[in-house]
Structures are given as C-alpha cells and as structure tokens.
Design brief:
By secondary structure, the protein is mainly α. The chain has one domain. It is built from 3 helices and no strands. Helix 1 runs antiparallel to helix 2 and helix 1 crosses helix 3.
C-alpha cells in the first residue's frame, strides 16, 4: 500500500494542505529549538530567565498554533497561518 503524499492528486486537497503545513510547522519548531540550543539554552541543564522565557514562549506558541489548527480543521476550514498557508499553496500547485 502506498501512503498518500502531498504531490498525490488522488489524495484530498484538505489532507495534503494540512499535512504539508504540519511539516513546515515542525521544521520551524526544530530550527527554533536548535537556535535555543546554540544560544546555550538546554532544558533541565541551563537555568536563566531568558532561556526559560524563550522556551516557554516557544511551547505556548506551538500549543496555541496546534489548537487553532484543530479548531479550524474541525470547522472544515483551512487554517490560515500567516506566510505558511501561502507557502503550502505554492507547493501544492
């Protein structure tokens, strides 16, 4: 069995759109996490107000983003994340 991909036109557009948007969000979160690690902020090891603030902001932002996407998908609408939705549409064309 072949899994549907974002380029597979047989898969529903809604599924392809959300899958690709989730991949892009994951890439952004990975880059942000690596950025924090480069700056010396490592969870459980480095303590400091700046590291805790950036880490908590990243967590809360990603949590709100996921909740927003779940609510929009349950309403059968595309989650319009700024810049990401446009990038996804360009990839799907």
């Amino acid at each position: 069995m072949r899994w549907p991909t974002t380029r597979n036109s047989q898969a529903p557009y809604f599924l392809r759109f959300n899958a690709l948007q989730a991949i892009l969000v994951d890439v952004i979160l990975l880059v942000a996490g690596y950025g924090l690690a480069i700056l010396g902020c490592r969870p459980g090891i480095t303590e400091g107000l700046a590291c805790d603030t950036f880490g908590n902001t990243l967590f809360l932002g990603s949590l709100l983003l996921v909740l927003f996407a779940v609510v929009e998908c349950s309403r059968a609408r595309e989650p319009e994340l700024p810049t990401l939705a446009d990038a996804v549409r360009l990839q799907l064309l």
